[in-house]
Design goal:
alpha/beta, 8-stranded mixed sheet, globular
Length: 285
Amino acid sequence: MTCISCGSSSNSIIFDNSFLEIPITQCNSCKLIATGESIEQLDKTMKKYYANATPVGEIKDTIDLDHKTNHGSYLMNLWKSHFDYCFPLFNESKNLLEIGPGTGLALRLFENKGFSVTGVEANSKYVDFINDKLIYGKCIQGFAEDLKINTKFDIIWLSHVFEHLVRPDLLLQKCSELLSNNGFIFIAVPDCQNPKILNQSVFDNASSYHYTKNTLKTLVEKNNLEIIKCESYREFVRIEGRGQLTIKKYFPSFSKQICPFYPFKKTDGDNGIEIRIQIRKKNIS
Ligand SMILES: [Zn+2]
């Protein structure tokens, strides 16, 4: 596989098999971990996987019960944490594009907060469900890479989508075209610096790339974009969660101060579950 990030063609197989039933390779130069031995193999495998993927199990229930499920409340907490994380960057910027909104909860929550929202989603079942729920916003069926639209967006949002793309480098270039000069891109992906998360990413998910903070930062910088912030977050362990809930109940503003992104906490170790990165165009003063 020629590395999509640094262009090196030297890589090693680090897992012989994966969820997508093809090997996992690591670039010997920039260390990016990819699914497959070539882009062609990855592309063919992902297309076949997504052609057969229909919402089942908890995702189907989440749509049928309109997010009143465990998965729905997980998505709600995740969005709240991401929203607070990006809050200082919102300014007057309210024109938002979400790539891969899935069941569309984030689009609806942003719309409730007064944002003007657009989604691009490949799965037509999700698209119909989302358009049924949005009041002013709309969701377009298709791929962001093919999006032909004259609008510029202040915010481009990718929550747990970026790790499933075959050519994330090309998507970053497309995002750069769609982004207004003062806008920003927010991306959240699993933190594969954590061996447990890498294992899940390889064996339980249809992930095309398995990022660490460093490999993600390299990819973004190679595509001529500037990083505002890139950090890893872990979930609360049970005892911290209980303590935090008590503080939250009695001292809500203190709780916000000591733990602004509950139920997630920043980490510098290899116990993160999620990388959050905020990106902007270069040379913006
Ligand atoms: Zn590389």
